Each structure stands twice: as structure tokens, then as C-alpha cells.
């Protein structure tokens, strides 16, 4: 699939107080496999993917596409943040097509949870996106049962558009925009 968004890619690495968001490299492959094979990470994503399948299908340099950032801490990958074209045809929602063209996604290794890295990395990625495509909204989907993800959506400033059933669970759809709505 060709990315329809006019994103200049790759950007220079984005540095935060503790993290670096950068384009993926070959050295990230093992961590990408670990991330996707993790039962904890897969809890709200349909479960972990089989490691042997990941070993076969993950390319030498994973995630080489516009909007896919490796999140690095002290030289090691701890997660990923994606600002990817979203699929409005997924089941259950009637607001998706109108909400925006880009979806925020994030995955972090369990040992990185609870330290504010997701908030820091997602904030930096959204700030970059707002500079790259000013005023373009971003959507976020999560299961309502995923309390951590629901808290992160609130911290990042996503506003609820709707809740709906899909994949056997209640889902939450929120939207974020760098444009401040009129008073």
C-alpha cells in the first residue's frame, strides 16, 4: 500500500528528555520480534504472534515506512510509535472515514511500562506530525478494557468520538488535532 500522506521521510531523529525516536535499523529486528511475540503486549491485540512466524516474516530492517518510529532509551529499542494511514473500513464505526487519515499506534516492551515513556514518545511523535501536516487530525483506537491505553489517550488530549463493538470487545475511538477549536 502506498502512503497517501505527503510526509517527508525519514525525519531527523527526534530527541526528548530521555528518548530518541528514529527510523528503524537492522539492529532493531530482535526487539521487534520480542515486542510482537510478548503475551503481555498482545493482551489487547488478539494475543502474541508466534515467534517462529515472526522470525520468518519480519524483514532485516523492520518498519521501514513513513510514520514508523523506533523508540530508543540509552541506545536500546524499548518500543515503537506509528503514525500510519488508518483503515476506516474496519468493523463497527461510522465516524472513522470523517475522523482523519492517520492513526496513532504504539507498542512498548513490558519492562518499559509505567515509566512515562509512551506519553513522552507519543507526545514527541504528535508534535512532529503537527509540524509535518499542520491541522491534520489523528485517530486512536483502543479496547476500553485497556486501562493504560485509555489513560494515555486522555493524557495526549484525544477526545472520544464513539465506542463500538469489534473483535469481541468494546472499542474506543478518539481524535486529536493540533488545531485548537474555536471558543
Question: Could you walk me through the main structural features you see in this protein, from its secondary elements to its overall organization?
Answer:
This protein is of the alpha+beta class and 183 residues long. The protein has an eight-stranded mixed sheet with strand order 1-2-3-4-5-6-8-7, sandwiched between helices. α4 links the parallel β5 and β6.
Low-confidence stretches: none
Shape: globular
Radius of gyration: 16 Å
Strand content: 25-35%
Note the total helix count: 5
Major β-sheet annotation = 8 strands, mixed
Helix content: 25-40%
**SSE string, helices as H and strands as E:** EEHHEEHEHEHEE
Distance between the termini: 39 Å
Instruction: Report mean pLDDT, rounded to a whole number.
Output: 89
The SS-based structural class is alpha+beta
Number of strands: 8
Strand order across the largest sheet: 1-2-3-4-5-6-8-7
Can you give me a brief rundown of this structure?
The chain is an alpha+beta fold and 183 residues long.
Topology overview:
Elements: E1 14-15, E2 19-22, H1 29-37, H2 51-57, E3 68-73, E4 76-85, H3 96-99, E5 102-108, H4 117-132, E6 138-143, H5 147-156, E7 159-166, E8 169-176
Parallel strand pairs: 5-6
Antiparallel strand pairs: 1-2, 2-3, 3-4, 4-5, 6-8, 7-8
